[in-house]
Design a protein that fits this description.
282 residues; Immunoglobulin-like; eight-stranded mixed sheet; disordered N terminus; signal
Length: 282
């Protein structure tokens, strides 16, 4: 009996192709939406076929995919999209998709021999309510989410988060602690957004202000998000009491964008998430 071999490949070149796994079923022709938070703990069922393409559309850059099988389908990665197509008329396998923020989305893949058209699966990254800033706005008010989902304005005196507001070590956490401050200074020039992000560390541990951890999303009036290609420079390790600035250039930026920056605290191994909605001023 032939053993299935695991697949793992990277999309650093922008486009990668792989063959994946095997078994049969049918499913309706659909466009469906999933929440990334659900997919990290429970796999979702998706359908593929030999005649039509299945599209997985994420709200972050896809780094790699993996599967336990190697003879069921092909997968192509480009930016935040994964294109799937079956190589066999029946079969089933798994699919793991790793995105740039480190989360892994899990899927069960089933071949639909009765498919009548392409399928599209939207994987959403729900956002925190964000303050709106313009180039002339003061630094944003920082809010920290507690364990019950409500937000509070941190006290001005630097202190460690307490009680239910303290994150589990090693976890990606929405919001910033009181001792980490980020100031965003945007400037629009036509369709080009230049953005300076400055982080100040008033805590006891060093931070990693990684330029590769910055994401910029274009927003429309319906709240839909699309990943924007960016050029980033600066950042680095931030000692207690220090600051670091990351410069971001996003071409083709709409009038409203969302900025997401994940900042790692070294001593606790926590990853804090800064989110801000920026709107072009008139």
């Amino acid at each position: 009996m032939r053993m299935a071999r695991a697949l793992l490949f990277s999309a650093t070149a922008g486009l990668a192709t792989v063959a994946l796994g095997q078994s049969g079923a049918v499913g309706p022709n659909v466009t469906r939406t999933y929440d990334i938070r659900d997919l990290t703990v429970r796999p979702a069922l998706i359908y593929v076929s030999t005649s039509y393409t299945t599209l997985l559309e994420f709200e972050d850059i896809v780094l790699r995919v993996a599967s336990a099988s190697s003879d069921l389908l092909t997968a192509q990665i480009k930016d935040n999209y994964v294109y799937l197509r079956a190589l066999a008329p029946s079969g089933a396998t798994d699919l793991l998709v790793t995105v740039a923020d480190g989360r892994v989305a899990m899927f069960r893949v089933q071949v639909d021999k009765n498919a009548t058209g392409p399928r599209r699966y939207l994987i959403r990254f729900p956002t925190m309510p964000a303050e709106t800033a313009t180039p002339s706005s003061p630094p944003p008010v920082l809010r920290v989410e507690d364990g019950q989902g409500s937000s509070r304005v941190p006290a001005p005196t630097p202190q460690e988060p307490k009680g239910t507001g303290e994150p589990t070590p090693g976890k990606v956490v929405e919001g910033l602690p009181p001792y980490v401050q980020v100031r965003a200074v945007p400037l629009w020039d036509g369709g080009i957004l230049t953005l300076n992000l400055t982080v100040r560390n008033a805590g006891p541990n060093s931070l990693v202000a990684d330029q590769a951890a910055v994401r910029v999303y274009g927003l429309d009036d319906k709240g839909n998000r699309a990943v924007l290609p960016i050029r980033v420079s600066g950042g680095g390790r931030v000692a207690p009491g220090g600051t670091a600035t990351v410069a971001v250039v996003a071409e083709g930026a709409p009038d409203m964008v969302e900025v997401v920056w994940r900042i790692t605290e070294i001593g606790k191994a926590d990853v804090w998430t800064y989110r801000m909605t920026l709107r072009r001023s008139e």
